[in-house]
Amino acid sequence: MAITEATEQDLPIIRDIAYRTWPTTFGEILSPAQIDYMLNMMYSPDALTAQIKDKNHVFLLAQETDNNEYLGFISYEFDYKNQSKTKIHKIYLLPASQGKGVGRLLLDKVAMLAIERANSHLSLNVNKYNKAIQFYERMGFATVDNETIDIGEGFLMEDYIMEKPLIA
Ligand SMILES: CC(C)(COP(=O)(O)OP(=O)(O)OC[C@H]1O[C@@H](n2cnc3c(N)ncnc32)[C@H](O)[C@@H]1OP(=O)(O)O)[C@@H](O)C(=O)NCCC(=O)NCCS
């Protein structure tokens, strides 16, 4: 498996993985209308381009080396809100690629980069009902707060904020 940094040319791959992963991830948590709304808000070509070009988000892609299939991605931002924290904005693996250690590899890679950057914590938001919470706990994250974000059109994101301290 290879982990590479995505360029603007790779944005359709990220969009494709998100559209194939969100229905199973959020099908029992969010309405179909909210899933459509959030995918469009976060993964439209313009939104993804802005994340890379204007918002300092970096995307890493996980790729199977045997057949070149893309398995998933993670995105992160160093020095989030001028704090010594690296924010994990997104981590999504195709359903068939979950539970095989790829998520751990992507998270470990970002933790290593964050330590090199001298950031002291990883931080992320996760939906309160997402099974990924157990994954994050296993990876050393703990819940530090919760947050309800009004994303418009009457939709809310009801999240926990989880953090992991980093030791160099
Ligand atoms: C969440 C996600 C990124 C985790 O990646 P993954 O490759 O499936 O997880 P890994 O196989 O690397 O698991 C790492 C460890 O966490 C544990 N773990 C993973 N998911 C778990 C779960 N739902 N419950 C309990 N433990 C879990 C594994 O057992 C493993 O522990 P071990 O190393 O001691 O055996 C992936 O499953 C995914 O893309 N899910 C759907 C999208 C999603 O919810 N993204 C997060 C949005 S905030």
UniProtKB/TrEMBL annotation:
Q: Keywords, A to Z?
A: Acyltransferase, Transferase
Per its record, what are the GO molecular function terms? acyltransferase activity, transferring groups other than amino-acyl groups
Indicate the segments forming the N-acetyltransferase domain, all copies: 1-167
- Would you say which domain of life the source belongs to? Bacteria
InterPro entries per UniProt: Acyl_CoA_acyltransferase (IPR016181), GNAT_dom (IPR000182)
What PROSITE patterns does the entry give? GNAT
Q: Matching PANTHER family, A to Z?
A: PEPTIDYL-LYSINE N-ACETYLTRANSFERASE YJAB
The name under which this protein is listed is Acetyltransferase
Q: Which organism is it from?
A: Spirosoma radiotolerans
